[in-house]
Amino acid sequence: MDVVIPALGLDAFNCPTCGAFAHMTWRDLTFYGTATTIGIRGATCAKCDGRSFWLVNAAQMILPDRGAAPLPVPDMPADVRADYEEAAAIFTRSPRAAAALLRLALQKLCVHLGEKGERIDVDIRELARKNVLPQLLIKVADTVRITGNNAVHPGEMAPEDIDLVASKMFLMLNLIVNKGITEPKELAALYDMVPEGARAVAEGKDARARDKASTAK
């Protein structure tokens, strides 16, 4: 899913309050019936009625101070979430700094998933090899220049690359949390709902299948 970065005057973008892509209703702010002399406009989200406020001359969002990133998914670890939220808060003002923070968050997330957290490309490939993450995620990471031969760090990126890389990394982090943490947790909860006898039968079949595969090698 693409993220449409909030910008002054856009009819629709990803709401900085609820994260949904939604229509925005704009109006000039007035106080006691008089337009503000510093030029402030407000946008109201059709989805959640949340508001964002903008300096007209600078074309800059001043409230809320969390940028355009999608909201973090519930199971995101606390230390990863802290970097994610900090990156979200500065994304519209400094996508380069946001990309650096998101790389750090991704390294921490790889550690939570059992990897070393030293090299993102190695960790993602290892998680894909273990079927923790889908193989296609490797191609996604390579395409947005996070991993692979074309990988670059935020300080090395051309300005036109920054928005793309940072916006895709928000989505990648949420996807990795869903695949590596949320889905296994939900499957484990579902498995626990199965009667104990049926679980024992299934586990016995799995054990015999593993033994047979091991003998065949």
Largest sheet: 5 strands, antiparallel
Order of helices and strands: EEEEEEEHHHHHH
Shape: elongated
Strand order of the largest sheet: 1-2-5-6-7
The number of distinct helices, counting runs of at least 4 residues, comes to 6
Distance between the termini: 43 Å
- Could you give the count of β-strands? 7
- Rg, please? 22 Å
The pLDDT mean sits at 81
Low-confidence segments, ≥5 residues, pLDDT <50? none
Give the DSSP E fraction (strand runs of 2 or more residues): 5-15%
Helix content: 40-55%
Structural class: alpha+beta
Kindly summarize this structure in a few lines.
This protein is an alpha+beta fold and 217 residues long.
Walk me through the structure.
It is a single chain. By secondary structure, the chain is an alpha+beta fold. Helix content is 48%, strand content 14%. The chain has six helices and seven strands. It has helices at residues 78-90, 95-112, 120-129, 136-143, 159-192, 196-216, and strands at 12-14, 21-28, 30-31, 34-35, 40-45, 51-55, 60-63. α2 crosses α3 (120-129) and α2 (95-112) packs parallel to α5. The longest helix is centred in the C-terminal third of the chain and has 34 residues, at 159-192.
